[in-house]
Structure formats: C-alpha cells, structure tokens
Amino acid sequence: MKSISRLILAGSVALVALWAADVSGKWTAEMQGRGGNTMTVNMNLKADGAKLTGTVSGRNGDTEISDGTVDGDNVSFSIVREFNGNQIKQNYKGKLDGDTIHFTVKTEGGNGGGRERTFDAHRATT
To answer: Which of 41, 71, 122, 124 is the most core-located residue (most Cβ within 10 A)?
Structure first.
C-alpha cells in the first residue's frame, strides 16, 4: 500500500512540474520610463518548480527578485530598489504566451506609488 501511495505522489509531482511554465532564461523588454523615454530591461529568470528566482536589470545594475512564483503560465515576483533614500517596490505579474510574457507592473512607494504599467518581455534568442 505504501508503494502505491508513493507512486501516486511521484506521478502527481511530475504532473505539476509539466504544468509549470517554462520561464527559465533571459528575457528583454522595452518599457516606458520617466519622461516617456523608452528603456530596455533585461530579466534573467530561473524556475524551480513553483519557485522563481533571478534578476531584473536597471539603470543601477541588476536587482534580485523576491517572492517569485510560477503557477501554470502565470508568473509573479517583486523587486525593491532604493532611490535617493526612498524604497520603491515593483510587483510584477505576468502570463506566459509562447516566447512572450505579458506583464503588468505596479509600483509602491516613491513618487510613482500606485502607478501601473503593462509591457511584453520576449525570450532572448542568444
């Protein structure tokens, strides 16, 4: 009886892993920045089951993501940056669609608090 339970559990874990989105890799996006200027953002993501880790690039280098999750084709994570002594948190929520992730990012803190933007990140080919 124990071996049947273990087999069912192992099969369930494998099935969940198959449903998880394949978001691991490098992603690039063009986002609207301050003053309407376009800026390129690079993301390096690594999925391990439902856990998502990685970095997001910015003007001041790479920032580690936190609270990263993958649930089917949905991904979410946060980054926290500091500008002029103010902490600014950005909460990213995205949906994988092939080699594109459709993101919404909401900013907390600073002058941009409550601001929400949408953008698409594309899987880097190199």
So the answer is: 41
